[in-house]
Specification:
Number of helices: 2
Shape: elongated
Largest sheet: none
Number of strands: 0
């Protein structure tokens, strides 16, 4: 049996990290939205969490693109 290429292992670790970040971000974002509604938080605080979630999703998109480009090249 052949050993996996180190680059493939690195890409797999990056893909796992992206999946974890996406799942945790979505759960936290939904939780904050629910909690903010229940506690009557000001809109600006909820938007702060929205922007943090968008930043995490953008990071995940960039890393996923890098993984995709790495597999093609």
């Amino acid at each position: 049996m052949n050993r996996p290429d180190p680059q493939d292992l690195k890409r797999a670790a990056q893909a796992r990290l992206v999946g974890i970040v996406l799942a945790v971000t979505m759960l936290l974002w939904m939780g904050v939205q629910w909690l903010g509604g229940r506690l009557g938080w000001e809109t600006r605080y909820v938007f702060l969490f929205d922007f943090a979630a968008l930043a995490a999703f953008l990071w995940a998109l960039v890393v996923t693109y890098q993984i995709w480009r790495g597999r093609r090249g």
